[in-house]
Amino acid sequence: MTDRPTVVWTEIPGTDLDAATKFYTEVFGWTMSREDGPPNPYVNFDASLSGVAGHLYPGKPASGNGPTIHLALPDKIEAGAARAEKAGATLLGPVIEIPPGRFQYMTDPDGNSIGLFEPKAG
């Protein structure tokens, strides 16, 4: 690395890697790739996207008490929230407007705290 980023990458733990992959693929429309190498199997977020990278890994979720990772949706909050709920997420609170866009908190099926983010158009 040639500079010092604030966030390097993210990791989201799951009790069932295949189920977690299915959930995130359904909600965000990602093309994910599985690696079975060290230190354990993991599934990378969509490599065609820009921004901070991340992956899913087999681990113990924080059950909503850990950090929250905000992930950009490919469309409107309402559409992403509907997909998330259908795929097993629990939506928390209302949609919140902030200067760069809108977001809504949820917990994924493993209980990880996730923010669904819709960037402001334009």
Mean pLDDT metric: 92
Question: What share of the residues does DSSP label as strand, in percent?
Answer: 35-45%
Multimeric organization: single chain
CATH class: Alpha Beta
Number of DSSP helices?
A: 2
Radius of gyration: 14 Å
Question: What's the topology here?
Answer:
Elements: E1 9-14, H1 17-28, E2 33-35, E3 42-44, E4 53-58, E5 69-72, H2 77-86, E6 90-98, E7 101-107, E8 113-119
Parallel strand pairs: 1-4, 5-8
Antiparallel strand pairs: 2-3, 3-4, 6-7, 7-8
Helix pairs in contact: 1-2
What report would you give on this structure?
The protein is built from 2 helices and 8 strands; from the N terminus they run βαββββαβββ. The chain is α/β, with parallel strands linked by helices and about 120 residues long. It has one domain: 2,3-Dihydroxybiphenyl 1,2-Dioxygenase, domain 1 (Roll). Strands 1-4-3-2 form a 4-stranded mixed β-sheet. It has a 4-stranded mixed β-sheet with strand order 5-8-7-6, covered by helices on one side. Strand 3 (about 40-45) and strand 4 (about 55-60) form a beta hairpin. Helix 1 (about 15-30) runs antiparallel to helix 2 (about 75-85). The chain is globular. It starts with 8 loop residues before the first strand and ends with a strand.
Summarize this structure as a short list of keywords or feature phrases.
single chain; 122 residues; alpha/beta; 2,3-Dihydroxybiphenyl 1,2-Dioxygenase, domain 1; 8 strands; 18% helix
